[in-house]
């Protein structure tokens, strides 16, 4: 079926159900950023493959909202589909709520699958509908309201991949210790129940890992915790007998995945239930209607974000392994460009395959942490571009390769972007690379008093671009999990406070955050410079506790793209200090020409 055919089939289902507008979010049942194949309804319906976006279908049109990371990609993928792109944050573009307020009338019905909408988003929609005296339908007469399922033939099934134990030697704390801390947080809120739906929170809390979502070591599950009991709702076939026994030994009882809603409905009326509206879905929230709902971010979020000393140690080890793999890749690519043969070129897909091969040579490598972004030349301007057989560009000895990639190791999760000169560069390419690198260096060198949030740092990264009237349309940094999701909250670097997003949190010792300013010139090239950084203690004096960042990523920057005259004295020092550290750390793992290349790539400027 083509996209227009799918839209027409959906509209017929809407007419049968008496629904005037149908929302298709990206979410699964757990508010996940990335979702398994079963949940890719928005992608299947519209053809847009980005990780963020919401589609709205009415009888007279279809629209898709997405953010600045995906404007170029969505514009290309939606061409000729009958779906209009709505650029979130662009001047004159209404939000979904504003659009519905403008287009729905009294008595109109808005429908969506309540399991695939967080209750926070559902509540915002209901407020709009009340203004218009319109009606919300998020559940069918005989069960879930899933119109896409009626028209999606050969839809993939729910994933049921094996769940494994994460040994305490890697986790740093046992699940019983973590559950004790969680129950202490529940007691502070005077809550006898905690219902969790966020997959990475559950995996972290119980020291379990799975693979129900590609590149994210999580498993489909819900959790209900009381002072005496822990109920884990998951697919029982994914658990070995030994694991079920180990969980039971620690007071965790495994129940069928689908029973979570009925169990929530059995919580005694009036009980105080702690849950996170950003991950508990609308249908599960409805099952809690008779209770006193305490809507707060999950306590696990902050507990998970502050890496313990064991996790910190392992994350450093993971980044050494990853640094060796990426350094060996850059050496290989430089050799390929020197020996460039237009009859047998290296392509974007070939780049991704080679990098994966080199990571796979590292001990304890598990899988990539996300789909590799290997974007050459003009593709670099598409922030989250990933090559396909149709778009696969051949590299030439000129311009940039923007390579954003990461790995899942037993020791932790990595995320790195390097913008690599494939050959001769223009003065424009060099200037913007240098400005982006300056912003990265200045943010990474920040020393600050404890209490600062991520909004305090964003200016440091953007200032070299802002001073010439340029910018980039994405956040500067996000938190990263420990052998978990490559995007994790609550820590981030962004000057914008986004509607529906949590407020920036205080930077705490142990948090790991990406530092990734960029610049993108449509149709020409893209630049991004990304390291992961660990927040650590610095000096403490009469003014308070000072903090700083420690670079975890160990791969050189592209000196062939640096304009030394644009660097001030301090920026040169920072660049040279970082490169000296990279050479000390990585060179023992390289030999021969690779080691000589690294020596030159980390030369003093």
Written description of the protein model:
With 605 residues, the protein is α+β, with helices and mostly antiparallel strands. The protein folds into three domains: 3-151, Creatine Amidinohydrolase, Chain A, domain 1 (3-Layer(aba) Sandwich), CATH 3.40.350; 164-297, Creatinase/prolidase N-terminal domain (Creatine Amidinohydrolase, Chain A, domain 1), CATH 3.40.350; 309-553, Creatine Amidinohydrolase (Alpha-Beta Complex), CATH 3.90.230. 34% of the residues lie in helices and 21% in strands. The chain has 19 helices and 30 strands. Helix 16 (427-444) packs antiparallel against helix 17.
Record keyword descriptors for this entry.
3 domains, Creatine Amidinohydrolase, Chain A, domain 1, about 20% strand, about 600 residues, alpha+beta, Creatine Amidinohydrolase
Give me a quick take on this structure.
The protein has 605 residues and is of the alpha+beta class. The protein is 34% helix and 21% strand.
Number of domains: 3
- Report how far the terminal alpha carbons are from each other: 57 Å
Helix content: 25-40%
Characterize the main sheet.
6 strands, mixed
Shape-level CATH architecture of the largest domain: Alpha-Beta Complex
Can you count the beta strands?
30
CATH topology of the largest domain: Creatine Amidinohydrolase
- Unreliable residue runs: none
Question: So what's the oligomer here?
Answer: single chain
Tally of helical segments? 19
Coarse shape: globular
């Amino acid at each position: 079926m083509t996209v227009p055919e799918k839209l027409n089939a959906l509209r017929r289902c809407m007419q049968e159900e008496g629904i005037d507008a149908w929302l298709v979010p990206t979410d699964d049942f757990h508010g996940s950023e990335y979702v398994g194949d079963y949940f890719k309804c928005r992608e299947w319906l519209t053809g847009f493959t980005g990780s963020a976006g919401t589609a709205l279908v009415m009888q007279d049109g279809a629209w898709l909202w997405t953010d600045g990371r995906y404007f170029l990609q969505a514009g290309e993928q939606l061409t000729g589909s009958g779906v209009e792109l709505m650029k979130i944050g662009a001047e004159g573009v209404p939000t979904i709520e504003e659009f519905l307020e403008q287009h729905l009338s009294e008595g109109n019905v808005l429908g969506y699958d309540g399991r695939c909408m967080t209750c926070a988003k559902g509540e915002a929609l209901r407020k709009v509908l009340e203004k218009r005296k319109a009606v919300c339908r998020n559940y069918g007469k005989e069960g879930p309201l899933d119109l896409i399922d009626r028209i999606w033939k050969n839809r993939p099934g729910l994933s049921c991949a094996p769940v494994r134990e994460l040994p305490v030697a890697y986790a740093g704390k046992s699940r019983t210790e973590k559950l004790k801390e969680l129950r202490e947080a529940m007691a502070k809120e005077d809550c006898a129940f905690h219902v969790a739906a966020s997959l990475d929170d559950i995996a972290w809390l119980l020291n379990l890992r799975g693979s129900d979502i590609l590149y994210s070591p999580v498993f489909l599950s819900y959790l209900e915790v009381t002072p005496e009991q822990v109920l884990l709702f998951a697919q029982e076939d994914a658990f070995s007998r030994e694991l079920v026994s180990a969980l039971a030994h620690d007071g965790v009882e495994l129940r069928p995945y689908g029973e979570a809603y009925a169990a929530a409905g059995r919580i005694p009326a009036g009980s105080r239930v702690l849950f996170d509206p950003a991950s508990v879905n609308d249908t599960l929230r409805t099952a809690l209607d008779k209770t006193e709902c305490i809507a707060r971010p999950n306590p696990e979020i902050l507990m998970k974000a502050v890496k313990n000393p064991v996790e910190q140690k392992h994350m450093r080890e993971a980044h050494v392994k990853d640094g060796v793999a990426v350094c060996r890749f850059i050496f290989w690519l430089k050799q390929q460009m020197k020996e460039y043969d237009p009859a047998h070129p290296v392509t974007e897909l070939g780049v991704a395959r080679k990098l994966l091969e080199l990571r796979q040579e590292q001990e304890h490598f598990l899988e990539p942490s996300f789909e590799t972004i290997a974007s050459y030349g003009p593709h670099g301007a598409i922030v989250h571009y990933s090559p396909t057989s149709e778009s696969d560009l051949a590299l030439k000895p000129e311009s940039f390769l923007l390579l954003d990639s990461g790995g899942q190791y037993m020791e932790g999760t990595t995320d790195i972007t390097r913008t690599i000169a494939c050959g001769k560069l223009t003065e424009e390419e060099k200037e913007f690379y240098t400005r982006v690198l300056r912003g990265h260096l200045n943010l990474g060198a920040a020393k600050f008093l404890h209490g600062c949030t991520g909004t305090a740092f964003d200016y440091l990264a953007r200032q070299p671009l802002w001073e010439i009237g340029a910018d980039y349309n994405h956040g500067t940094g996000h938190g990263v999990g420990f052998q978990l999701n490559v995007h994790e909250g609550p820590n981030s670097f962004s000057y914008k406070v986004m509607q529906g997003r949590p407020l920036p949190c205080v930077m705490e010792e142990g948090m790991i955050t990406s530092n990734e300013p960029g610049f993108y010139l449509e149709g020409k090239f893209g630049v991004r410079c990304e390291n992961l950084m660990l927040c650590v203690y610095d000096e403490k004096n009469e003014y308070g506790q000072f903090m700083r960042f420690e670079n975890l990523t160990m791969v050189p920057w592209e000196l062939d793209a640096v304009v030394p005259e644009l660097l001030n004295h301090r920026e040169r020092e920072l660049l040279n200090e970082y490169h000296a550290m990279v050479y000390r750390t990585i060179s023992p793992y390289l030999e021969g020409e690779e080691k000589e290349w690294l020596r030159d790539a980390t030369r003093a400027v």
